[in-house]
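Ticket #4471: structure output looks truncated?

Reporter: J.K.
Steps to reproduce: submitted the chain below (128 residues) through the standard prediction queue, then opened the result file.
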Amino acid sequence: MDVRWIRSTNSNLSEIEAEERRNRPADPPQQGRHVIRRNSQPTGIADTVNMFADADTLKDQAHKDIDKQEYDVSDFYYTTGCVQYVARSSAFSSGSLAAIVLNALWIGIETDLNQKNNLNEADLFIQV
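Returned output as attached by the reporter:
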């Protein structure tokens, strides 16, 4: 189903202008492009515009993007040394993610349980 956005324009034209517009040949449809002209005079006729991009254009762009290499920050790391070995390891990535998740959980628990305005007045397990 072809979905189109219809924009109504001003229909208060004089008889002469309306006749001139009816006698003018219609523009060929342009697929994938908006055909509303910003500086044009109102035609009194509803202009139609495709709401979505042309399917063929989207397919061509997707085929171009398939060949692109996925971005990975480890491509910029050195290839020798123990630090790059640790940084590239999946255990380091999993550990970093686990630390972030545990920190987020602790912030939520601490926010719910700590009723004190000052950290010095809070319970010992919250201060640690």
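Triage note (M.O.): checked the attachment and the full token line is present. The longest strand covers residues 4-7.
Status: closed, working as intended.
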